[in-house]
Amino acid sequence: MAQPISYFSPGPAKIPDVVLERVQEQLVQYGTTGVSLMELSHRSKEFAVFLNATEAIIRELMCIPDNYKVLFMQGGGCGQFAAVPLNLISRTGKADYIVTGSWSSKAAQEAAKYGKVNQVVPKRERYTGVPDRSSWTLDPDASYFYYCANETIEGVEFHSVPEVPEGVPLVCDMSSNYFSKPVDVSKFGLIYGGAQKNIGCAGVTLVIIRDDLLGNSQPICPTIFDYTIMAKNKSIYNTPPSFAIHVLGEVLIWVKEEGGVAEMEKRALQKSKLIYSIVDESRGFYSNSIDPINRSRMNVVFRVGMGGGSEELEKKFLDEAAQLGLLSLKGHRSVGGIRASLYNAITKADTQRLADFMTKFLKENKN
């Protein structure tokens, strides 16, 4: 009997089995069109139907107000590192960035090409949480305030929305925790995220932007990164990532069927608590250096071995896990260790399998 697979990849990540089956059925022929889902013209009425349906379920699940546009773009999160300042920084030429991990650091570096970036907290050698609000240096004249809601590499997550000066739009990278909990969209000027971590496959970037922030792009902004042009053309100024958009829509249908984002939040807390509890109760055999109030529900990172980790033990951990079908647990190359990504599609059963293995591995190797 084949070993069951539990896939903890940080991205491209697991997609629910039922979604893969639905997409498989449409791959050769989409509905009654006679052509594959991947061949369907983006100018066809059939494409318009599923594009509108995808936007509708996004709006429903996130309770998006009417004065926000939903855009389907390309270029991933890294593309948005440039698109955000190219569209928004021109108001004052300045922006606030809080750097809490590798991705927000890269975003700040990219934005500095297009305006003045104020890093609201001092640069640190290691990212272990979100610095206390009292230590932030904010610019009330910033064009926007930028943060990454969940740092996949370091395992740092914001569990509340940052408070910023009145009139400063809040911009958030939600690539890795999109649709994992309820969000008050009205608090944000712009939200974006690549789909490949938590809500679909690689290829589409979901952008949600407030209407009053449109129309401010810099002259050098590439047309396909111009939010105003993309909004005016309903995301089909050029050929959009049609297949990825459809997969995104199917994933969100699944989220709705499973109980919506409130249910996803409940599951995320249960799954992450299960793994963190084993780490915390291991008496140092497993270790996590992130401030408990900022531990990620999506990406649980830890070291294996007393004294902060042993590369030899971690290799053994990964090898034995892989033999059991527990895949893609290796930490990012920049930080090492172990990383279990517990996105929406990871089931409680997947998480329990990992927990059982961790408990067994501890008993067999603690000495």
Overview in brief:
The protein is 35% helix and 14% strand. With 367 residues, it is α/β, with parallel strands linked by helices. A 7-stranded mixed beta sheet has the order 2-10-9-8-5-3-4, sandwiched between helices.
Count up the helices. Answer: 9
Beta-strand content estimate: 5-15%
Largest sheet, in brief, is: 7 strands, mixed
Compute the number of strand runs. 14
Average the pLDDT over all residues and give the rounded result: 95
Radius of gyration, CA atoms, in whole angstroms: 21 Å
H/E element order: EHHEHEHEEEEEEEHHHEEHEEH
Trace the largest sheet across and list its strands.
2-10-9-8-5-3-4
Poorly predicted segments: none
Helix % is 25-40%
What is the first-to-last residue Cα distance? 33 Å
Global shape = globular
**Structural class from helices and strands?**
alpha/beta
